[in-house]
Write a structure and sequence with these properties.
The chain is an alpha/beta fold. The protein has 12 helices and 5 strands.
């Protein structure tokens, strides 16, 4: 995202000095996106695409992404001041459906203090608003919560998050880190509580992946069993046909009255009898 902002967003918005979203025409945000700027942009886009594809085909999904929604020409105004006035908080509490966290196998967003802030606010909103869908974790192989992510990716992430301590999160501005840490400590359970919530979410996601994988395996096994049954039936029919033909041929060869073959290459005993031929000559 660093490259995208420096080489695409800033040049495009340089004249107007607006955010990219304002430049192209803002739309109502459906989901808040929490992510790490160091994640490969292709990974980021594919992860959101898979999340969008998992939603209803009727609804067009829209996302609040800080690099496009914040005015990069006045970024201090977007994130400075009290946390209640930051663009992140205002976007989260502005009526979005939930938070989509874009994860790589290193779970790098959870090593950043501002992502920790977004995570904290997401948990608070989910607790206080029943219509808020909470945290949805998506990867470039699928949505973890829905079980559609690659099983290997889910296992690696689960292993990573099982040892992750959010109190080790970092920020480029120390004052921001301290402000966010104080917010976490002020909540019931503090860091232990939020660490437990993250582990609970990844556990539920891992169970979803397991269920999805098992269902997929069962479907494939049914297909294989069906195909094997058809092939076995075909072989049985062929064997029966060959056995029937062999018996017919054996019976024909063993008969005292050989079957007529071709143009009188075999004759019945009566036709071939010399006596009968003589009787016919006498007549």
């Amino acid at each position: 995202m660093y490259y995208v902002v420096a080489n695409i967003v800033l040049p495009l918005t340089q004249h107007a000095k607006l955010s990219y979203a304002e430049l192209v025409g803002p739309t109502e945000a459906g989901w808040f996106v929490s992510h790490y700027w160091g994640t490969a942009f292709q990974h980021f886009v594919r992860s959101l695409r898979l999340h969008s594809d998992s939603r209803s085909a009727v609804d067009m999904q829209s996302y609040w992404v800080c690099s496009f929604s914040n005015n990069q020409w006045s970024i201090e105004e977007e994130v400075c001041g009290g946390w209640e006035t930051t663009s992140f908080y205002l976007a989260l509490t502005g009526g979005v459906k939930g938070t989509v966290m874009v994860l790589d196998e290193q779970a790098l967003p959870l090593t950043r203090a501002w992502c920790l802030f977004e995570l904290l606010q997401t948990f608070i909103l989910q607790k206080n608003h029943t219509d808020f869908q909470g945290l949805v974790m998506t990867t470039n192989s699928g949505v973890l919560n829905e079980g559609s992510a690659n099983a290997d990716t889910a296992l690696v992430l689960a292993g990573r998050l099982s040892n992750l301590r959010l109190e080790n999160a970092e920020a480029s501005v120390e004052k921001d880190r301290q402000m966010i840490f104080n917010l976490v400590r002020a909540q019931e359970g503090g860091f232990d509580g939020i660490n437990a919530l993250v582990k609970r979410h990844i556990r539920l996601a891992l169970e979803s992946v397991q269920h999805y994988f098992e269902q997929k395996c069962r479907r494939l096994l049914c297909v294989l069993d069906t195909q094997a049954g058809v092939e076995l039936a075909d072989k049985t029919l062929k064997s029966m046909s060959q056995a029937s033909f062999t018996r017919s041929s054996s019976e024909a060869l063993a008969s005292p009255h050989p079957v007529l073959l071709g143009r009188r290459h075999a004759f019945s005993e009566d036709v071939c009898s010399p006596r009968d031929n003589a009787e016919h000559l006498d007549v």
